Amino acid sequence: MAYDDFVRQLLLFCQEEQNIILLCFAINYTVAEVKELNMRLEVEDDKSSLEIRLLIIKVLSILDSTFKVIQFRLDNPDLFPINIENSFDPDVYLANDVDMIDIMELICGLFYSHSVKNKIGNPVNFSELARVFEKGMNFKFADIYKKRDDVFKRKATKLTEFLNELIIAIKIESKNRGYL
């Protein structure tokens, strides 16, 4: 069961991750961790750990074959085209009265509430989430992390000003539709 879950997660990770360097690093790191665990179990020389050691051998084997596939992918890049969606060209722009710091406030709210995950269920990193908004609304932050810090540096009364405006807008629309 645990082995099947591991293999399933490894397969999902390899399918989703286009960054070959990250794939190699993640697999090598995992191999090192599993080998360390195996060495600790060998030192204990406990007969009850035999099943765990057999599982470790299976895990190392699947990691080795996965690494070989990645190595083949590196050696033959033409056989594995990178899935890049250049066709996404939204016709969406920020209104003139919305500042980029307002959008960053929204991004911070989503990120720090852990509300956004990637396809395999892991939290997205901050810059990735910010890039989604940039691409989706046709703008660029000059410096994502500086803009994030600008949100945190605002006075307490302005810290969540845009989010408060969104709450008010939703309440007004709900009232207009007769729900409140």
TrEMBL record:
<protein>
    <recommendedName>
        <fullName>RteC protein</fullName>
    </recommendedName>
</protein>
